[in-house]
Design brief:
With 108 residues, the chain is mostly helical. It has three helices and no strands. The longest helix is centred in the middle third of the chain and has 28 residues.
């Protein structure tokens, strides 16, 4: 959003008044403006290639590790062993009859 002509004129008058009244302050402001005109590097920091490699390796490990854990967790549950003889054809043994104390009077 740009300033209007009137606002730019008022700012120029304020700047001119400051330059006439306080020349030390004007020099400091000029030094700050000159440093700011160097470009966008004033807010950026240099990232080395080694730092980029470390970040990429960490991201890759964080992406692959959950996949490995999920795949190996599925294999950790053993399948139940079948009991009974394979010659009888029954995969499981016949259930035991209930104890005598649990039978009703009609069964005796």
């Amino acid at each position: 959003m740009s300033l209007s002509h009137r606002e730019r004129r008022i700012l120029a008058e304020i700047e001119l008044g400051l330059r006439e009244c306080d020349q030390a302050f004007a020099r400091r402001i000029d030094a700050l403006n000159a440093a700011a005109e160097e470009g966008p590097r004033r807010f950026s920091s240099h990232v080395s290639g080694m730092e980029m490699v470390c970040v990429l390796i960490a991201a890759l490990l964080l992406a692959v590790l959950p996949v490995i854990v999920v795949l190996h967790a599925g294999r950790a549950c053993p399948t139940p062993a079948r009991t009974g003889s394979s010659s009888s054809g029954a995969p499981y043994p016949a259930p035991n009859p209930p104890p005598a104390s649990a039978r009703s009077d009609s069964c005796r």
